[in-house]
Amino acid sequence: MSRAGTLRIGTRASALALWQAREVAARIAAQPDAPAVELVHIRTSGDQQSELPLWQTRGQAFFTREIDRALLDGEVDVAVHSLKDLPTQLDAGLALAALLPRADPRDVLVSRTGTALAALPARARIGTSSLRRRAFLARLRPDATLLELRGNVPTRIERLQRGEYDAIVLAAAGLARLGLAQHASEYLPPESFPPAVSQGVIGVCARSADEATRRWLAALDASDARLAASAERALLRHLEGGCQVPLGALATVQGDMLTLNACVCALDGTRHLSARGEARATCAEAEALGVRVAEELLTRGAAELMASERQARAVEAP
Questions:
Q1: By residue range, what is the domain housing residue 150?
Q2: Of residues 85, 104, 107, 166, which has the active-site annotation?
Q3: Is residue 270, in this structure, part of any structural domain at all?
Q4: Looking at the structure, do residues 234 and 306 belong to the same domain, yes or no?
Q5: How many domains does the chain have?
Q6: 130-143 in b/e burial notation, b at 16+ Cβ within 10 A?
Q7: In this predicted model, what pLDDT tens digit does every residue of 60-89 receive, in sequence order?
Q8: Is 195 among the domain residues?
Q9: CA 263/CA 302 separation, integer angstroms
Q10: Burial of residue 270, with CB atoms counted within 10 A of its CB: 0-12 exposed, 13-18 middle, 19 or more buried
Q11: 202, burial (CB in 10 Å: exposed 0-12, middle 13-18, buried 19+)
């Protein structure tokens, strides 16, 4: 916490990022004797690299690195992220202090005519910036023309409405948070179109040694979101994948049981490998479940599939 007693929250300046930061701020403010809160806008490398597809760019943490660096440097006290953007290995000195309750984890198709994915015309132009979405779109609609799509959510919808695409794929959570759910044409089922790891979860980081700030954040932590994200992130970590791997996964909590489904898909959609596991709903068991499902995928050939995909993209990338 800053010397003035104000919690400085680091965030990107996009409409969705600001919604998430304000949600965290409101939840902190709702606590008795809560400190004042200030939002600090930080521009990230993902914001700056607005033309080149991120899957053709080396590295990861495109939308989180600069915010976490400001946190470590003491320029802010809290970092708010879409958890799916946050690497599974945090920088030394940082802690994932709170996970807010998970919103709808699914992807959603937004089409110009309200048409569902299966009913889009032949060779429909579908926009997405995600390698995972490209892979599963190719699996379900191999005839489709897949086009790159960058920009914030409102910008993507505007480009669709201008006729640059016949449809685009977005995260249902982001669409709902911005009050744009009326644009949804179809919610894509996780069974055939698994979401990104931790999609729909807002992650809140603090410095590991900042006990004062972490006390305010601890009350925000949602146990089901923590369990599901622990399993999914352990899976991703064990597979050594980042946002550039066509992996979809979803963990769900029912009673005292945790279930994890995961799928790795070739970018052209012609091959995919699936695995599933269950465990008791505890943090230790959640991590172990993620590792176990990752091992099953590796046994079935996930490493070879991902290696061939990386090699193919290395040839294609400029």
A1: 107-188
A2: 85
A3: yes
A4: yes
A5: 3
A6: bbbbbbbbbbebee
A7: 556 788 999 999 999 999 999 999 999 999
A8: no
A9: 9
A10: exposed
A11: buried
